Amino acid sequence: MDEASLNLVRSAAGRWNLESLFKTAATKAGTTPATHAAPPLPYLSATNSRINFKNGAEKLPFSLVATDVSFWQENPGEWRIRLRGQPARTDVSLDLADTGVVELNASAHSAPALSQMPIHLDLEWRDAQLGS
User: Fold this and answer.
1) pLDDT in the model for residue 51
2) CB of 70 within 8 A of CB of 85?
3) Kind and range of the H or E element at 5?
4) How high is the mean pLDDT of the chain?
5) In the predicted model, what is the mean pLDDT of residues 118-131?
6) Do residues 125 and 102 touch, judged by C-beta distance below 8 A?
7) DSSP code for 12
8) Burial class of residue 111 in the structure, from the number of CB atoms within 10 Å of its CB (0-12 exposed, 13-18 middle, 19+ buried)
9) Do residues 92 and 72 make contact, with C-beta atoms less than 8 angstroms apart?
10) By the 8 A CB rule, do 67 and 8 touch?
11) Which of 3, 82, 101, 117 is the most exposed place for a label (fewest CB within 10 A)?
12) DSSP track, 21-88
């Protein structure tokens, strides 16, 4: 996809909107007989996209713009995420050149609940102006 918009939403109960995606894929992978293995989650990729963060219905004042993100299932029960984007604020005027670039590489393994998933995360934020 190109120029997609993704909303990451955390509910009042503390659940993320992506939790059902992980649970469904993990359930299918764990309950399907070996002779009829469920196909892995497809490779999803978005370029030049935007990721918004929400707390319930309230959109938070920060997002990632000009983002390239990839999401795929490496093995049954193991997901990988690769992301490169530019932090942005909607509540103040900022020169986007000063916000730097965020790069993330992550892997996650299935668990009964998203909050229990073991995650390995490498995050780098560089070329950001950290003062006035």
Assistant:
1) 94
2) no
3) strand 5-10
4) 82
5) 89
6) yes
7) T
8) middle
9) no
10) no
11) 3
12) HHHHHHHHHHHS-GGGPPPPPPPEEEEEEEEEEEETTEEEEEEEEEEEEEEEEEETTEEEEEEEEEEE
Q: What is the CA radius of gyration of the chain?
A: 17
Provide the residue type at 54 as one letter: K
Predicted TM-score (pTM) of the model is 0.75
Tokens, residue 72: 């795929």
Return the closest-CA partner of residue 119 out of 107, 103, 132. Answer: 107
CB atoms inside a 10 Å sphere around CB 5: 11
pLDDT at 33 over 50: no
What pLDDT digit, counting tens, does each position of 49-63 carry?
A: 999 999 998 999 999
Q: What torsion, rounded to 10 degrees, do the Cα atoms 115, 119, 125, 131 define?
A: 40
- 131 burial class (0-12, 13-18, 19+ CB within 10 angstroms)? exposed
| SS3 category, 102 | strand
Amino acid at 17: N
How far is Cα of residue 60 from the mean position of the Cα atoms in its chain? Answer: 16
- The letter for the amino acid at 35 is T
